[in-house]
Design brief:
Elements: H1 2-20, H2 29-51, H3 54-60, H4 66-90
Length: 91
């Protein structure tokens, strides 16, 4: 069940981050899931480190709750921003 929860959390978080973040982000469903999973790791880690929030820790373990989805989306948006900075400089 853990891998399935990661995939669902990744899909939800990645899709919401792409929907909220302005501009065009390429990639298909697998890129969206990967972005969401990495966003959950980043958002959960930063939320737990900076805020000491136990609900942020849920994002790092793939828990499907509203706070963990919020932290995962914020982490995914941060990754989209960083990726945009990297690709702009390379182009």
């Amino acid at each position: 069940m853990g891998i399935l929860a990661w995939l669902v959390l990744g899909l939800i978080a990645g899709a919401l981050a792409k929907l909220i973040y302005p501009g065009h982000q390429g990639g298909g469903i697998f890129a969206t899931i990967g972005l969401g999973i990495l966003g959950a790791l980043v958002g959960g880690f930063l939320g737990q480190t900076l805020l000491g929030s136990s609900s942020a820790a849920g994002a790092t373990v793939g828990a499907l709750s509203i706070p963990s989805i919020i932290f995962a989306v914020l982490g995914a948006m941060l990754l989209i921003f960083i990726w945009g900075l990297i690709t702009r400089r390379a182009a």
